[in-house]
Write a structure and sequence with these properties.
Elements (H helix, E strand, L loop, with lengths): L6 E2 L1 E4 L15 H14 L3 E5 L5 H13 L4 E7 L2 H11 L5 E8 L2 H8 L3 H18 L3 E6 L6 H14 L3 E3 L9 H14 L7 E5 L7 H10 L4 E4 L13 H10 L6 E2 L7 H12 L20 H9 L27 H10 L6 H17 L5 H13 L4 E9 L6 E9 L2 E9 L2 H12 L5 E9 L8 E8 L6 E8 L2 H38 L1
Parallel strand pairs: 1-10, 2-3, 2-9, 3-4, 4-5, 5-6, 6-7, 7-8, 8-9
Antiparallel strand pairs: 11-12, 12-13, 14-15, 15-16
Length: 526
């Protein structure tokens, strides 16, 4: 089937909104801007940049992204509440092309227990809020939250009402990952056939992965008539996540024989986007993740290797280059220069300024002196570690005494806002002693929910990659810190410090917002 006969699919990326709602995946303002720039450059049609009413920080991020996007539409999420809609409109109004995305629950279980509204009351809410949004901006998307558990007759009433009120895109999400592909396809077909004004809107699929069917359901939605897919980089999102953008895009590209649709994504940037989102969110990509996992183009079986040597197509249905993956993995060492290192970073999908490259190169040379073989994965872990480190908190030195005789102790020096502080602490094991030392310098009440270690590459000199997840006692928010180092205890300390730094950043942001609110109240009184 030629390109001229294929339908064009709108790719709607919600990494910065739905993806950031993953526990512990909060991204900084600068990280959001960097991700938005990359999504814009790779050809994403719509970027849902955030939930403007959620916080001043979210509003500022959406507003800043709206001003800088060159081609993508920027969307702001809004509940079916006038204040939400007005705030979203204010955030995206500066964009070349802006969209308000408003939603309301439609399923019986949501209406009874969450909305506590009747069906007729919700119809009135849809009509009023969509009309309000359309009066503020031309591009309005409306979503029926929990559409797949909504009776089809009522769902059709809601959709007809939303289109009549001015919605230009209708999203029918599988909010809780409940549907099967056949059911999801049938729902779209039924709604589009039964709603009289269905031809006046673009239909959209938004699927969660609770049963591992998000990508399959999204493609089924296309078969049912949807022409927009909502997805995230790496499948990031609430609970089990969303449909993965990279999987959807490569399915369309690889199986064009049976999937007669196309999109405008530059697939060669997929790996770069995956690494950037992973580093910003501190969510590592599983090794066997489709398309962008470390093992996606790796072959260890002798039979597979033999086939690959004879013809790559025996075991690879797409080329590594098509998604931005380089074949070579062992080319760097302690004799490599800055030019080679810079080129390697570019191959791996990193775009840094001169200062960032110099910092990464210094750490690379230090690693090369300690480790015989430097693999691509080592460089990725080293660079991601540098990205993740807090500017305010940095590990400067760590000495740990451990063994059978005990007690285990750790002497730690931290750089806290430019000042060195050293402390010694004991604990039930070397990791516990190290974490206690950090707590002594940076007191906090956060609860340790996860401590995870895995080797980046093979061998006894492999770097250890450590993930630490903390829960802030005051807010219940979860944050994740990640770091890599040939010394497991050093990696553990850096990961823990990164997580503590994120909690401090959230607390500082909350205080700033509170001070701003208090000042606004004073100004209003004056």
């Amino acid at each position: 089937m030629t390109s001229a006969t294929k339908d064009r699919i709108v790719i709607f990326d919600t990494t910065l909104r739905d993806g950031e709602q993953s526990p512990g995946a909060t991204m900084s303002f600068e990280e959001k801007l960097e991700i938005a720039d990359l999504l814009d450059a790779m050809g994403v049609d719509v970027i849902e940049a955030g939930f403007p009413i959620a916080s001043d920080g979210d509003f500022e991020a959406v507003h800043a992204i709206a001003k800088r996007l060159k081609t993508s539409i920027v969307a702001g999420l809004a509940r079916a509440i006038p204040a939400d809609i007005d705030r979203a409109a204010e955030a995206v109004r500066v964009a070349r092309r802006g969209r308000i995305h408003t939603f309301v629950s439609t399923s019986p279980i949501h209406l009874a227990h969450q909305m506590r509204k009747t069906e007729d009351q919700v119809i009135e809410i849809i009509a009023a809020t969509v009309e309000r949004a359309r009066n503020l901006i031309d591009d309005v998307e409306w979503s029926a939250m929990d559409a797949t558990r909504t009776p089809i007759d009522y769902l059709c009433r809601c959709v007809e009402t939303a289109i009549r009120a001015g919605a230009t895109t209708i999203n029918l999400p599988d909010t809780v990952g409940y549907a099967t592909p056949d059911e999801y396809q049938a729902m779209f077909r039924a709604v589009r056939e039964r709603v009289p004004n269905a031809d006046k809107a673009v239909f959209s699929a938004h699927c969660h992965d609770d049963l591992g069917l998000a990508v399959a359901n999204s493609l089924a939605g296309l078969a049912g008539g949807a022409r927009q897919i909502e997805c995230t980089i790496n499948g990031l999102g609430e609970r089990a996540g969303n449909a993965a953008l990279e999987e959807i895009v490569m399915a369309l590209k690889t199986r064009g024989d049976s999937l007669p649709w196309e999109c405008g994504i530059d697939t060669r940037m997929l790996m770069r986007a995956s690494k950037l989102v992973s580093a910003a969110s501190s969510f590592p990509v599983q090794f066997n993740k489709a398309i962008v996992g470390r093992n996606a183009f790796a072959h260890e079986s002798g039979i597979h290797q033999d086939g690959m040597l004879k013809n790559q197509q025996t075991y690879e249905i797409m080329t590594p280059e098509s998604v931005g993956v380089q074949k070579t993995s062992l080319v760097m060492g302690k004799h490599s220069g800055r030019a080679a290192f810079k080129d390697k970073l570019r191959q791996l999908g990193y775009e840094f300024g001169d200062n960032q490259i110099e910092d990464a190169f210094v750490r690379f040379k230090a690693l090369a002196d300690r480790k015989k073989h430097i693999y691509d994965e080592d460089i990725e872990a080293l660079v991601d570690d540098g990205i993740a480190q807090s500017d305010r908190l940095k590990v400067r030195a760590l000495t740990v005494i451990a063994g059978t005789m005990g007690p285990q102790s750790a002497t730690l020096t931290l750089d806290v806002a430019g000042h060195h502080q050293t402390v010694q602490a004991t604990g039930n094991g070397p990791v516990d002693a190290t974490f206690n030392a950090i707590k002594a310098i940076v007191p906090h009440d956060a609860k340790l929910l996860l401590y995870q270690v895995h080797a980046v590459t093979e061998g006894t000199d492999a770097q250890a990659e450590v993930s630490v997840r903390l829960e802030d006692a005051a807010t219940g928010r979860q944050v994740t810190g990640r770091s890599a180092d040939p010394d497991t205890l050093v990696a553990s300390a850096k990961a823990y410090v990164a997580a503590v730094g994120r909690i401090q950043q959230m607390a500082a942001s909350k205080r700033l917002h509170a001070q701003h609110s208090d000042q606004v109240k004073v100004d209003e009184q004056v």
